[in-house]
Design a protein that fits this description.
By secondary structure, the protein is of the alpha+beta class. It is built from 9 helices and 21 strands. β18 and β19 form a beta hairpin. It comes from Stutzerimonas xanthomarina.
Length: about 350
């Protein structure tokens, strides 16, 4: 089938590039550290098309690219190809960033991700942006208008909106796209990209909920980041108090964290509050390192007003620690109510 949509360049943004270049995918292996090798870096540039999709699908089929960062530097291409690339990226647990490869230099150069490239970028689990790199959006259209344009536009609108929602992006992004004039390009500010959840810089939204398991009810807060997953569980004790359990998924470091931990801290925003004693020292439990303690009344007060709550597993030298923060994200009232429930039962 002939290409339905063509990539479109804004002269003000890419004046030196009159047309889209054919795509290229380059895989750069990482160096081994302490006997372990990280996933390779993937550099995808040029026009996005069905051929680009086929190439990335073939490269990722072996699992070699699982967890890799895909650096994008593209003026766009077919929106269907952008979404298909995003699906592959998400299915293989890959992350995305905007940048281009520099021979002999580890740090990627700044890049531009325009038009359909933004759809591919949305597929990353973690989506990073360099302060100098650019994201550009516009409405998609046919080069040659036809009588069926309205029907096609409606179908494409539904497809893109559904895709963005599935990727965890605010559908307002598509509403922004369609307001851009034909043959124009809007550079999306990084603050807007973060607000629309297009950019997350390695941190997914926090989740807070009252949960139950095996007859016990507790308040749980969880946040996934590129550095691991942190989870807090607040449960009521029999003595009108709260037991706080910290669970951290440090991946391959779990056993080392449990072995090296000598001290603990409750993290409230940017503060580290020393914990005098724990009811359960650091232990590997399933995929997590687990530790528990009973906060005193001052800590409970800090917990009820915090914007971020976390935990620190500190080594013996006190200079090195492992840990996490969970954003409260407007759930202070839930946390405060739960603490009140536990302390007044």
């Amino acid at each position: 089938m002939s290409r339905l949509f063509r990539c479109m360049l804004a002269a003000a943004v890419l004046a030196a590039v009159p047309t889209c270049a054919s795509s290229a995918i380059q895989v750069v292996d990482s160096k081994a550290f302490a006997g372990r090798r990280s996933p390779p870096a993937v550099f995808l540039s040029g026009e996005l098309s069905d051929a680009t999709v086929s190439q990335l699908r073939a490269l990722s089929a072996t699992g070699r690219l699982d967890g890799a960062i895909v650096y994008l530097d593209s003026a766009g291409g077919e929106p269907q190809a952008g979404m298909a690339l995003g699906d592959i990226i998400r299915d293989r647990g890959m992350n995305t960033a905007v940048g281009r490869h520099q021979e002999g230099i580890a740090q990627p150069a700044i890049g531009r991700c325009m038009s359909a490239c933004v759809l591919a970028y949305a597929g990353g689990t973690f989506r990073f942006i360099d302060p100098s790199s650019q994201l550009g959006i516009h409405r998609f259209y046919r080069e040659t208008p036809t009588a069926a344009d309205l029907d096609v536009a409606q179908l494409m609108s539904a497809a893109i909106t559904s895709y963005l929602i599935r990727m965890g992006i605010d559908p307002e992004l598509f509403a922004r796209m369609v307001t851009v004039e034909r043959k124009s390009m809007e550079l999306l500010s990084h603050s807007d990209a973060i607000r629309l959840r297009l950019v997350n810089n390695g941190v997914l939204p926090a989740e807070w909920a009252i949960e139950g398991r095996q007859g016990s009810v507790y308040l749980a807060g969880r946040q996934v980041s590129a550095n691991g997953t942190g989870k807090l569980i607040m449960s009521c004790t029999g003595g009108r108090s709260v037991r706080l359990s910290a669970m951290y998924d440090g991946g391959d470091n779990n056993s080392e964290i449990a072995r090296r931990t000598a001290h603990y801290s409750l993290r409230i925003n940017d503060r580290f509050l020393p914990i005098a004693s724990v009811t359960k020292p650091a232990t590997v439990s399933g995929q997590y390192v687990l530790a528990s303690f009973q906060p005193d009344m001052n800590m409970l007060w800090d917990l009820s007003a915090a914007e971020q709550i976390g935990f620190g597993f500190h080594t013996g030298d006190r200079e090195t620690f492992y840990g996490f923060l969970v954003a409260v994200d407007g759930q202070q009232d839930l946390i405060r109510s739960w603490i009140t429930h536990c302390t007044e039962v």
